[in-house]
Every structure is written in C-alpha cells, then in structure tokens.
C-alpha cells in the first residue's frame, strides 16, 4: 500500500487527522520511566515510554512521526531503538520519518536505506538543495516526501520573509516544490503559529497535503483558526501534531480523544460551509486506480498533457496535445517513464533499440543503458556532408530492431523510421510507444507488418485525469466527442 493509501485508510478508520511524534527525548520523558525499575537504564525507559504511547494512540492517529535526530543523538543504541519503535507501529499506520534531510551527497544512500531497509513510508526534507536532492527519494513507488516550507523559529523570519512580506521566500519554496513531485508523493511541512501563513500556502497549493508543526507554541492562534486556514474544502489535507505534553501524561488517550473530536467538529463545519470539487485530497475517491496513475498525474502536472484546441502535424485539430519532450528535464519522472517502457521491452526479442528522432532519442538512449542493448537511430533528414548516413550507430544487416517512439498519432513517423531501418537490412517487428492515440492506428501498423505495443492509451490518460479532478467535465466531454 502506498503512503497516501495507508494515510487515507488510517484517517477514515480512526477518524483522525492527528499525528503523534515518537521522540526519545530524555528531557521530555516522564519521571516514572527513569525511577524505580528503570533507574540507570535510559534506553529501557525510553523504549517503554514510546511503546506505551503507540499502544494508547494506535486507534486515535493517522500517522506516526519519529524524529531521526533524537534517535541519532543516542548513538548506536538510539538507532536500535528506532528499529524497535518502528516495529511496534501497526502496519496500517503510515510512518513519517522526520529527518529534515538536506544533503545532496547522501540523498541517494539515505533514500535507499529508509525506503528499502526500514518501514518508513515518508520522510521530511529540507528544500535548499533543490530538486536534485529530492529526486532520489521519489524513485521509490508509493513513498512520499514532505518538503519543509517554513518554520516558526523567530530568527527564521529574516530568511523566510525575504525579500519582502508580500512575496516571501517560503511561498516561492512551495511553488517550486510543487514542480518536483505530484500531490501523491510530495507534501508540505509547515511550521507556523499563524493561520495567515497557512492560508497563503493553502491558497497556492490547494491539492497538497500539509503537515502542520509548531501550532501549539505559546502565543499561537486558536486551533479553530489554524484548521479553518489549513483544511481543504473536503475537511482534509491537513495533519495536526499531538501536543508533546499530552504524550507525557499517564493516559495519553484520554487527553487525545477530545482533541480528535474538536478537529473532526471543525472538519464537519468546513464541509458544511460548502465544499467544491476544486479542492481535493489525493486518492480518496478512487475506486479503481490505474496502475500508472502516479505517472499520468505527474506528466499532467509537468505540462506534458495539454488540453485545449491544438493543431496536429496532420492538420487535424484535437482537444489535447501530448508533449512528452519535456520529460527529460525531470529525471525522476523520466526514470518512471523508462521503467514503464522497460516492462514492455523485456518481453520482446531484439538485438538493437532504435529511437525515432528527435523526441524519442533520449528515451531510446535511456532504455539502451538500462536494458544493456545497443542503440541506433534512423535519421530524420540525411546530411549533405560527412558520412551522409541514413542510420546512425553500428549494426549488422539481419539483426532485429525494436522501434521506440513517444506517441502514435497516424503511425507515419514510426513507419517511415522502420522503412529506413529495413533499407539497411534490419528486421523490424515490434514498435513500442508510450501513448497510443487509438483510432485504429495499431491496426494500421499491423496491416503493414508491425506489432505495436503501448504503455498507455489516450483514453486511459483522460479517464485518470478526470477521476483525479485534474481536468474538468467539459474537457473530458470534449475529448470523448473527439473520439466518437
Ligand atoms: O504517428 P504520427 O502521426 O507520425 O505522430 C507521432 C509523431 O509526432 C511527433 O514527432 P514530431 O514529428 O513532432 O517530431 P519531433 O520528435 O522531432 O519533435 C511524435 O514524437 C511522434 O514521432
Ligand atoms: O504529430 C502530432 O500530431 C502530435 C505529436 C505529438 O508529439 N503530440 C501530439 O499530440 N500530436
């Protein structure tokens, strides 16, 4: 189950937006865990305290959030304690590791460690190293990241409000972070006591999950104001931390229950005030999710799938345009896309991979490197100078080539490419594309002796975008009319 599926399930099952921090902070540990039977054994005291918190709250929260720094500060026994704490959390509750990781050099290894060798579902990251730093965390399907957008530290104002309060840096961080990942894998962490700050972020990121922090600080706003500013119109999209002092009481559950009810009351009010379909929580209403939903939504968010009137190469006007050429500028997304192509190619038999220029040359290169098959390509136009080759790269006549392209509209480009390869003595049987525009193009290719395979059809894409609320009913209907 992905992070968001787990989270939505826990929110619904426990009727809660509460997140409990599982922090082995000796200063906050209640005295009863350091006296009597615990005297002199800090690690035992911390472990039992955290386990009691989990036992008491597992049916009251939607996520747990261990802070990595507290465990690291305890040395090797601390890291051992982290493993024990994670193991004590029920499988149904997602785990957000609060690491605020920010180092580019260690991002790949850290992402691999937490997402493949521990039960962590999501991690908090510092935004300063940019997308390069975040991308290694996003290559793990179903995992998520929380980007730290702002904190409530008084001294941070000088940075976060720069250059001026009307156009503060923290809002730029939100805007930029939105381009790094889809709402299904990239959420925001917002430390603030100010409903105004939360409202500004909610306004520019209505679709993002927000993990609120620091809302209980002295002098902060009322919880009702925080909820009004941060909840989306469905009364969701906001995770609320349980105040630390509640976790030190003998019966944390007794203190947390009324808080959960207060929050749920505000959620009901928000929904009654009139929810619209514009604001949504990822995944919540999907009955059947497309296996490549994540990829489709990210492509849409990146501007690779455009709706509106577009003239096609053939001169026809469609209510959409697919521009997959942009994907190369988003390594994380490009990686996901190559994996989807590779799933098809691995079942085919071929000696070389040929990309159709220009759009599909990077794709063919990526697949060649990943699948360890050499690449060639048929030129779009032959140069009047130099070697004047039609086919670039080395090959032997008689070899079999799989042709790779991004989209099939009329099939003209791939057939022209295949014909050039065939004039070089190569065999072409299979053509693999990312998107099939449908309308009988695969049949046309079959009639010409080629077997076409596609990752997605244009109908699957529009259906998924419509279900996810990315395109309007009018856009969906315009598409349906165009294919009637
Ligand atoms: O099935 P078809 O009707 O041939 O249409 C699909 C082709 O159109 C696009 O390429 P384009 O000609 O725009 O060239 P580019 O890759 O050089 O941008 C796309 O990359 C496909 O190759
Ligand atoms: O050739 C076209 O018509 C065409 C190319 C492309 O990349 N995307 C698209 O929607 N149409």
From TrEMBL:
Co-factor(s): Mg(2+)
Gene3D superfamilies the UniProt entry points to: 3.40.50.2020, Aldolase class I
Binding site for 5-phospho-alpha-D-ribose 1-diphosphate: 379-380, 383, 385, 405-413
An annotated GO BP: 'de novo' UMP biosynthetic process
Pfam families with a match to the protein in the record: OMPdecase (PF00215), Pribosyltran (PF00156)
Keywords: Decarboxylase, Glycosyltransferase, Lyase, Magnesium, Pyrimidine biosynthesis, Transferase
Pathway participation: Pyrimidine metabolism; UMP biosynthesis via de novo pathway; UMP from orotate: step 1/2; Pyrimidine metabolism; UMP biosynthesis via de novo pathway; UMP from orotate: step 2/2
Its EC number(s): 2.4.2.10
GO terms assigned for molecular function: magnesium ion binding; orotate phosphoribosyltransferase activity; orotidine-5'-phosphate decarboxylase activity
Annotated Orotidine 5'-phosphate decarboxylase domain residues: 17-226
Keyword ATP-binding belongs to the record: no
Keyword Iron attached: no
Catalytic activity: orotidine 5'-phosphate + diphosphate = orotate + 5-phospho-alpha-D-ribose 1-diphosphate; orotidine 5'-phosphate + H(+) = UMP + CO2
Alphabetical list of CDD domains matching this protein: OMP_decarboxylase_like (cd04725), PRTases_typeI (cd06223)
PANTHER family (alphabetical): OROTATE PHOSPHORIBOSYLTRANSFERASE (PTHR19278), URIDINE 5'-MONOPHOSPHATE SYNTHASE (PTHR19278:SF9)
Similarity-based family: Belongs to the purine/pyrimidine phosphoribosyltransferase family. PyrE subfamily.
Subunit and partners: Homodimer.
Job description of the protein: Catalyzes the transfer of a ribosyl phosphate group from 5-phosphoribose 1-diphosphate to orotate, leading to the formation of orotidine monophosphate (OMP).
Protein name: Orotate phosphoribosyltransferase
Organism, scientific name: Coleofasciculus chthonoplastes PCC 7420
């Amino acid at each position: 189950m992905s992070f968001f599926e787990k989270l939505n399930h826990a929110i619904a099952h426990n009727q809660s937006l509460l997140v409990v921090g599982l922090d082995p902070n000796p200063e906050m540990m209640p005295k009863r865990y350091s006296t009597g039977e615990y005297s002199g054994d800090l690690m035992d005291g911390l472990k039992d305290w955290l386990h009691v918190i989990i036992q008491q709250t597992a049916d009251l929260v939607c996520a747990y959030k261990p802070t990595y720094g507290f465990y690291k500060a305890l040395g090797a026994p601390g890291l051992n304690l982290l493993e024990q704490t994670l193991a004590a959390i029920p499988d149904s509750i997602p785990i957000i590791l609060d690491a605020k990781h920010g180092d580019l050099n260690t991002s790949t290894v850290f992402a691999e460690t937490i997402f493949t060798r521990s039960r962590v579902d999501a991690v908090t990251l510092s935004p300063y190293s940019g997308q390069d730093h975040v991308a290694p965390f996003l290559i793990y399907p179903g995992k998520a990241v929380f980007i730290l957008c702002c904190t409530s530290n008084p001294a941070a104002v000088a940075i976060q409000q720069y250059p001026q309060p009307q156009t503060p840096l923290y809002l730029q961080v939100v805007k930029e972070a939105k381009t790094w990942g889809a709402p299904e894998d990239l959420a925001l962490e917002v430390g603030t006591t100010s409903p105004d700050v939360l409202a500004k972020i909610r306004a520019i990121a209505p679709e993002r999950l927000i993990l609120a922090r620091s809302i209980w600080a002295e002098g902060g706003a009322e919880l009702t104001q925080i909820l009004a500013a941060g909840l989306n119109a469905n009364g969701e999209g906001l995770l609320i931390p349980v105040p630390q002092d509640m976790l030190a009481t003998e019966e944390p559950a007794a203190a947390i229950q009324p808080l959960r009810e207060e929050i749920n009351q505000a959620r009901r009010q928000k929904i009654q005030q009139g929810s619209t379909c514009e604001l949504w929580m990822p995944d919540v209403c999907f009955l059947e999710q497309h296996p490549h939903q994540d990829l489709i939504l990210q492509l849409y968010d990146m501007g690779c799938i455009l709706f509106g009137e577009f003239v096609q190469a053939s001169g026809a006007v469609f209510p959409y345009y697919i521009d997959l050429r942009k994907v190369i500028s988003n390594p994380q997304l490009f990686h996901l896309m190559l994996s989807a192509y590779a799933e098809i190619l691995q079942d085919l038999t071929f000696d070389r991979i040929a990309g159709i220029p220009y759009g599909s040359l990077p794709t063919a290169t990526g697949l060649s490197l990943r699948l360890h098959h050499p690449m060639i390509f048929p030129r779009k136009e032959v140069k009047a100078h130099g070697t004047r080759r039609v086919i670039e790269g080395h090959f032997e006549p008689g070899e079999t080539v799989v042709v790779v392209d991004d989209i099939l509209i009329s099939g003209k480009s791939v057939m022209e490419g295949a014909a050039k390869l065939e004039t070089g003595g190569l065999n072409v049987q299979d053509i693999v594309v990312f998107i099939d525009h449908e309308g009988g193009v695969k049949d046309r290719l079959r009639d010409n002796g080629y077997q076409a395979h596609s990752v997605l059809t244009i109908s699957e894409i529009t259906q998924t975008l419509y279900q996810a609320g990315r395109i309007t009913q009018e856009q969906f209907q315009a598409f349906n009319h165009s294919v009637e």
